[in-house]
From TrEMBL:
Region spans: Disordered: 1-30
All copies of domain Serine-threonine/tyrosine-protein kinase catalytic, residue ranges: 773-1040
Gene Ontology terms for molecular function: protein kinase activity
Signal peptide: none
Top-level taxon of the source organism: Eukaryota
Record gene name: FGFR4
Stored PANTHER family: MITOGEN-ACTIVATED PROTEIN KINASE KINASE KINASE 7-RELATED (PTHR26392), PROTEIN KINASE DOMAIN-CONTAINING PROTEIN (PTHR26392:SF92)
Pfam families membership: Dynamin_N, PK_Tyr_Ser-Thr
Name of the protein: FGFR4 protein
Domain Dynamin N-terminal: 154-291
Length: 1072
């Protein structure tokens, strides 16, 4: 009986050797793949007791070695497994579509109600909304159709002869498509479900012919008759589209599209683009054995179409996300082993240059031929298995994108609807004079903003024009250099176009050769100088920062005045003077933004800004394309620029002196290119997206300003009775707000892609770390680790994981999103915990922060215990310094109109350097209290730190934080829990106790249990403490006043030297 194999460290396969029983470690598939010497392969095969009978050469032996390793290792993946995987994903996708469809239908009904209000009440709200969100009723229909669409193709495109059909056969686990070099030249093949194996041949004239396969018929042989290239490749095929119907269950949910080579014919590229609007997944296959690697000009041609394409019927919905594409470097076995690393790096670099937003996690190197050989013997190769892993990871992202497109439109519609409804509701709360005053104020501010926006546009255009001038000068010097002239005039035999075909074909070949030579010169210049790529990042940051800080922020502030909501001013991180902490490579955000199609625009620079989907300005897809396609246009445009001025030349002139003819023509074209406007046109084409973005901003910003002017004018002129606003608008506002919360909860639960891979986030497991670090009413903080993604990387990085209590629902989702958003925007204050990113633990969303070690309650206890062991009391300066850090953090938050919420010694953390860190941030709002019917049964618990007004149901405000500061000071002074000596068990008892102006007992003599024993210090501490927990919010100290007065001297609480709140203190302080 054969002895079993085992897995050693790093999952290497180990086998027992004969005799001594020692185990030998076998190589991995990758290591076998790198064997380039026949002798080495033979030696390894003999070591593993493998027969070499019938094998011919190195490749056969390597295949036998890989097969042996797979048999011994027992790989988990099986041929055909991908089918089940895709089917499960599709089923999950259907559930989410149905969820969003339900919300679309419910909101649509309310939108129809707005149209009815327009007719019955002469109401202008519907018209105002239609100007903000044009044709919104038609858009509802469009997005409902998107959610019910059953079109779900997996599109496989790529370069000619790259092996697209072979890859599809692997995915199907069946030979379906012909794979010869002449196959499937200009025919698109769709593989769909059918009860009977059938080929449907679609002719160019629109007719269709069905060929039903009989038992024993070869599908591959039959297809060859219709899709294989015959004669001139430039001639159109008789069958531009072929459907292949197979009785396979999984094809009921999806279908697979095999596209011809990209870039050869414009009509093919356009067809591929149409499939992309519905693509379930997009796989682009690269012919890795090409000289020069990936054919970027062809990929750029496709990207240019993708970047500017829109979903049918709408001008503002992007239809495809670049980040969900999958790139397969096929024929990897034909790339010399010594060159593979460089080839892969070069491929990734070129992909990122022309497919902005892509990353190396989307690139997979493999050999479909090798994978096919192993599949035939019942195994999945290592590289194909990695590809399937990537497919399993990236397809859900593609599915998310398709749903996000509709989610984002509905989110914007609801945001603008709620904004208008709030404006009308506030209208009913204002007098006629107040309305008029607000109208004049807002009108003045909007006109000023319009002038400011004009200045911003002029500044941006000046910067782009300057880029053009600098590039022109640099390129002109380069193109007139002797080195470049030698490059364009030097031709080898391999470069010469062959004399064949018609006159037109020959002229085209000559033009193409010269065009490619000049294109190569320009590409090499950009590769060396990286001018346009650097300018891309500079312009992106400039545009985003200018828009965010100069336009959007001011417009949001003005709209806050219109609808009565407070807008919190946030400074970019650059203003804070604190450097960004270094992030691990896998956590770094791309500097290329995902404008208006990701949750936020976030630039990982010192000038980080955030632009959320709640922006009042909805920029059309053209602006998105401008940023994404910034590196796309130049080379493609150049080909047209170079070719458009040429005239046909006599072929016999070329035949007589090929080298001289090409040299003269190339030099002439180069000189003409430099002297004429073509060089400027080329440079401007490279920066064309920036100009286009400017045009879009110049259109949409004034439009939105005018829309707000129209709104305040309508409000000012609206003379209806205030009851109208109460009867109609207030209930509708509540309904729409509820819809918006439900939509946001759907986003968090189903769509929000973590910026930290959940597989790398884990709770710390060491025994010493049991239990949460901090625990409050809303959330708890636990110790965690960020695990390395790659073998051999540095060890786990400590972090803090914040988990919110209970499931994120429509009731608390806004608070969760608000906190995450604010943590990203605020500067890195010393006494605020710093956000690393968003992730998930299981299905629960969580925030990941920099590491902390304990809560402030434990820290204070340790300080007291350490002192007591020395028969002393904790130094007052240490206790004061600790509390001072808390108030420093609060002072910063309060200065921004923010509050901590749920503040206590148990919700404030301390890091390893004993620096205090506040852990919550939010805007003032109503606290989450128990349902009124459960007041008598809900335990008081963490509610004891809530101020009287909050317990009564009023908003939690900055003064509420200061109330909690008073209780924290009491607990520091007496090392107990507030109210622990009182018989307070339920929320109802707590509310009655606190709202009757009763507080924890505070003896006048510090010797009666206090840990601050010096009378002068004790008097200062308790006096400030009492002024913090005053019953009336306006009587409490602010954070700044706390810092000012804690250092004042006083011998007793009744001393005249206690100048702050003395009258209040003497009148209201109660000792129990």
């Amino acid at each position: 009986m054969a002895e079993a194999a085992s897995k050693g460290p790093g999952n290497e396969v180990t086998l027992p050797t004969e005799g001594a029983g020692d185990e030998m470690t076998l190589p991995s598939e990758e290591e076998v793949d790198e064997i380039d010497k026949l002798a080495k392969a033979v030696k390894l095969a003999k070591k593993m007791n493998l027969s070499l009978k019938g094998l011919k050469g190195l490749n056969d032996i390597k295949h036998r070695l890989k097969l042996h390793l797979l048999e011994k290792a027992g790989k988990s993946r099986k041929p055909g497994e991908v089918i089940n995987m895709v089917t499960e994903m599709r089923s999950r996708d259907e559930e989410r579509r149905e969820h969003l469809l339900g919300l679309l239908q419910e909101v649509e009904k309310r939108a129809m109600g707005l149209m009815m209000m327009k007719q019955e009440l002469d109401d202008q709200l519907a018209d105002q909304l239609d100007r903000n969100v044009p044709n919104f009723m038609a858009k509802f229909k469009l997005h409902k159709e998107r959610m019910t669409s059953r079109k779900c193709p997996i599109l496989v495109a790529g370069e000619t002869s790259a092996g697209k059909s072979s890859l599809i056969n692997l995915l199907l686990d069946e030979e379906v498509l012909p794979t010869s070099h002449l196959s499937n030249t200009y025919t698109i093949c769709e593989i769909r479900y059918g009860d009977v194996r059938t080929i449907k041949l679609h002719r160019r004239d629109g007719t269709c012919e069905d060929r039903v396969l009989e038992e024993g018929d070869s599908l591959v042989d039959l297809l060859k008759k219709y899709v294989e290239e015959k004669g001139d490749r430039d001639q159109p095929t008789d069958y531009p589209r072929v459907e292949i119907l197979l009785p396979r269950e999984f094809l009921k949910d999806i279908y697979i599209v095999d596209s011809p080579g990209i870039g050869e014919k414009e009509e093919i590229t356009k067809q591929v683009k149409e499939y992309l609007t519905e693509a379930f997944a997009f796989i682009y296959v690269i012919k890795s054995d090409n000289a020069g690697g990936v054919q970027t000009d062809r990929l750029q041609a496709l990207l240019k179409e993708v970047a500017t394409m829109k979903t049918s019927g709408t001008e503002d919905i992007p239809a495809f996300s670049v980040k969900t594409a999958i790139f397969v470097c096929n024929k990897w076995d034909q790339v010399p082993i010594a060159e593979r690393k460089l080839v892969k790096e070069d491929t990734i670099r070129k992909l990122q240059a022309c497919w902005s937003g892509s990353s190396d996690r989307q690139v997979f190197c493999m050999s479909t031929a090798e994978a096919q050989r192993l599949r035939d013997q019942g195994h999945v190769s290592a590289d194909f298995s990695r590809f399937l892993d990537g497919l399993e990871r990236l397809i859900p992202e593609s599915l998310n994108w398709r749903i996000e497109v509709s989610y984002r439109w509905l989110d914007y519609f609801l945001s603008r609807t709620i904004y208008h409804l709030r404006a009308y509701v506030q209208q009913g709360e204002q007098s006629r004079d107040e309305r008029k005053a607000k109208f004049e104020l807002v009108k003045s501010r909007l006109h000023a903003l319009g002038d400011q926006a004009d200045d911003v546009m002029k500044m941006l255009r000046s910067n782009v024009d300057s880029c053009v001038d600098v590039a022109m000068q640099s390129l002109r010097e380069h193109l007139t250099s002797d080195q470049v002239k030698r490059t364009v005039t030097t031709w080898t035999e391999a470069d010469l176009p062959k004399v064949e075909g018609t006159l037109n074909i020959m002229v085209k070949k000559i033009k193409t050769a010269i065009s490619q030579r000049i294109q190569g010169v320009l590409s090499d210049w950009e590769k060396d100088q990286a001018f346009f790529s650097r300018q891309r990042e500079v312009l992106i940051e400039l545009f985003a920062t200018a828009f965010r800080t100069k336009i959007e922020r001011n417009l949001l502030d003005i709209e806050g005045t219109i609808d009565g909501t407070a807008v919190v001013p946030m400074e970019p991180a650059a203003d804070c003077g604190v450097e960004e902490e270094e992030e691990t490579t896998d956590q770094k955000r791309s500097k290329l933004p995902q404008l208006f199609i990701e949750p936020h625009l976030r630039l990982n620079t010192a000038g980080k800004v955030t632009l959320g989907v709640t922006s009042p300005i909805w920029l059309p897809i053209g602006v998105v394309a401008a940023f994404f396609g910034l590196s796309v246009y130049g080379i493609v445009e150049l080909k047209r620029i170079v070719e458009r001025s040429r005239e046909d030349k006599e072929v016999n002139t070329y035949q007589q002196d090929k080298y001289g003819y090409l040299s003269r023509m190339a030099l002439k074209e180069l000189e003409q290119f430099v002297r004429s406007n073509e060089l400027r046109d080329y440079v401007r084409s490279q920066l064309k997206p920036a100009y286009y973005c400017l045009e879009q901003l110049q259109e949409v910003v004034p439009k939105q300003i005018q829309l707000d002017l129209d709104l305040v004018r309508d409000l000012n002129e609206d003379a209806r009775d205030e009851k109208v606003y109460t009867i109609y608008y207030s209930p509708l506002l509540q309904v729409m707000d509820n819809f918006h919360r439900r939509l946001k909860a759907f986003w968090v639960q189903e769509l929000w892609a973590p910026d930290i891979d959940p597989q790398t986030v884990a709770f710390a497991t060491r025994d010493v770390y049991e239990g949460p670090i901090c625990s409050g009413l809303r959330a708890e903080l636990k110790r965690g680790e960020l695990l390395p993604q790659e073998v051999g990387s540095a060890g786990a990085k400590p972090v803090t994981i914040k988990l919110f209590r209970g499931k994120i629902t429509h009731r608390n989702v806004m608070e969760f999103l608000q906190e995450e958003d604010i943590f990203r925007k605020v500067k890195k204050h010393l006494n605020l915990i710093h956000l690393t990113g968003f992730s998930r633990i299981g299905h629960l969303p969580c925030l990941v922060f920099t590491p902390v070690v304990t809560d402030l309650r434990t820290r204070i206890s340790d300080i007291h215990q350490s002192a007591l062991m020395k028969n002393a009391y904790a130094p007052y300066d240490v206790l004061l310094g600790t509390m001072m850090q808390v108030v420093n953090g609060l002072e910063y938050l309060h200065s921004k109109g923010l509050v901590h919420l749920d503040l206590s010694l148990s919700t404030v953390a301390v890091d390893s350097d004993n620096v205090v860190k506040l852990t919550n941030i939010g805007k003032p709002r109503e606290a989450s209290l128990p349902h009124q019917g459960s007041f008598d049964t809900t335990e008081a618990g963490g509610y004891v730190y809530l101020a009287p007004e909050v317990l009564r149901g009023q908003d939690y405000v900055t003064e509420s934080d200061m109330y909690a500061v008073g209780l924290m000071m009491w607990e520091i002074c007496y090392t107990g829990t507030a109210y622990v000596d009182e018989d307070i068990r339920t929320f109802s008892e707590l509310k009655d106790f606190v709202c009757s102006n009763r507080r924890p007992k505070t003896p006048e003599d510090p010797s009666e249990g206090a840990y601050i024993r010096e009378p002068r210090d004790y008097n200062k501490w308790t006096a400030v403490m009492a002024c913090c927990w005053a019953s009336e919010p306006e009587s409490r100290l602010t954070a700044s006043c706390w810092k000012e007065n804690i250092n004042k001297t006083g011998d007793s609480r009744s001393s005249s030297r206690l100048s702050f709140h003395d009258e209040h203190f003497q009148a209201n302080y109660v000792v129990l």
